[in-house]
Amino acid sequence: MSQKLNLPIRPRRNRKNAAVRGLSRETVLAPEDLIYPLFIHEDESDHPIESMPGCHRWSLKGLVKEVGEAYQVGVRAVVFFPKIEDDLKTSKGEECFNPGGLVPRAIQAVKEAYPDVVVITDVALDPYNADGHDGLVMEGDDGELKILNDETVNILCQQALCHANAGADIVSPSDMMDGRVGAIREALDGAGHKDVSILSYTAKYASAYYGPFRGALDSAPKAGDKKTYQMDPANSREALREADLDVAEGADMLMVKPAGPYLDIVRLIRDTFDVPLAAYQVSGEYLMIKSAAKDGWIDEEKVMMESLIGIKRAGADMILTYFAKDVAARLTFP
Ligand code: PBG
After folding, report:
1. Is the pTM of this model over 0.85?
2. What percent of the chain has pLDDT over 70?
3. Mean pLDDT of the chain
4. What is the DSSP letter of 172?
């Protein structure tokens, strides 16, 4: 039996076919929104990373080749994460500002091959620090580990300068020390690097979603956790406070990390601040999609696209994702 409804307003009309849906689409993902995080190491060959299927630790040669492949499909921004040899790790992490170190050489190699690729570097001590923390560690009288703030900021400034000297376009402090954005800005300007930008990890949460990344770099803290510097996952007002400071200290761009479980924070910062906003789809978010797809429970490509459009819709202008090359390929050659 057919029923007649008197419905002058029918939202489904805007979904009636692919072309109409295209016209009505509110959010579009493009290759130029993507930042491709790449792992590098001091080795002649490339190694697949067990905890992150599809990702590799690249040799410098492999890195340039991978950046080239991503370039072909429209990716124009990369960020490097180094695995530092154990014998170069110290309690002060001095290797982080060695001008002949792995990251400066990677910057030079990529800028030489692809001058218009935006090279972003991670500024933090965890890959260099024998303790695996983002800052300098001191053991208090009570045996508790303390992460020293101001001493760490001094070293981060040297690290940022080292990256800028090597040709980095953007430095990206991921350590969550207080005052580091202002100090790095001053150090960069003092050295004539006024055009080097700062993409600040503004709201970086103490998240279990970073697990596979720490496996990739062997950079997990040897003792304690990161809760005295990374943010409590329960907090959102605190993210606004961090953003206020970063903007006042001169950050050019802000970041929320992780992305998927923190979309409310992305939206909150987007609505409150005018600077461009990045969100980082971290290793655990990536791995969850990869593993579920491996067993055939979800469609990897569709969930990948949906996870990223969700992050963009929440207000991110740019997204760091290990899927960058695959997504861009799909967007460029649908
Ligand atoms: C460390 C850093 C981490 C990530 C990026 N930079 C890990 C951490 O804070 O322990 C995580 C990225 C990911 O999980 O994909 N400075």
Report:
1. yes
2. 100
3. 96
4. E
Ligand 1 centre to CA of 124 (Å) is 10
Q: How far is the CA of 5 from the centre of ligand 1 (A)?
A: 55
Q: Which ligand 1 atom is the nearest neighbour of the CA of 209?
A: 14
Mutation to probe ligand 1, out of 121, 147, 174 (largest number of atoms < 8 A from CB): 174
Which residue has its alpha carbon closest to ligand 1 atom 8? 210
Residue 75 — very low, low, confident or very high, per pLDDT cuts 50/70/90? very high
Given a cut of 70, is residue 1 above it in pLDDT? Answer: no
Q: How many CB atoms lie within 10 A of CB 329?
A: 18
Q: How remote is the CA of residue 35 from the centroid of ligand 1, in Å?
A: 15
Class of domain 29-332: alpha beta
Domain ranges of the chain: 29-332
Nearest residue to 60 (alpha-carbon basis) of 117, 121, 116, 101: 101
Spell out which residues line ligand 1, taking CB within 6 angstroms: 122, 124, 126, 134, 174, 210, 213-214, 226, 282-283
Active site residues: 204, 257
Backbone angles phi, psi at 230, to 5 degrees: -75, 155
Q: What are phi and psi of 67, to 5 degrees?
A: -60, -40
With 90 as the cut, is the pLDDT of residue 255 above it? yes
Whole-number Å distance between alpha carbons of 179 and 114: 33
pLDDT digits (tens, 9 = 90+) for 90-141: 999 999 999 999 999 999 999 999 999 999 999 999 999 988 899 999 988 8
